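Standup notes, protein team

Yesterday: finished cleaning the Klebsiella pneumoniae IS43 set.
Today: 23S rRNA (Guanine-N-2-)-methyltransferase rlmL structure.
Blockers: none.

Input for 23S rRNA (Guanine-N-2-)-methyltransferase rlmL:
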Amino acid sequence: MEDAFDVQRDHIRLMTDLKRLLRKGGTIMFSNNKRGFRMDHDGLAALGLKAQEISQKTLSQDFARNRQIHNCWLITAA
């Protein structure tokens, strides 16, 4: 990544790199605080991955007033 990292633009490229480290049955926990973040499910599927959103389970009380700022996902092999 030569430019500044942008989580919305670059998350699939990051998952591509992380997939090489993922063991069979392993899980990537992916979290960010970008408002309005949208997971690229098609991009993940093309990598053979799937995402389960768990944001509500991992939301800190500090962010309870503004749930838009917290995003958390479990990424596994499809």
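Follow-up from PR in the comments: The first strand starts at residue 28 and ends at 32.
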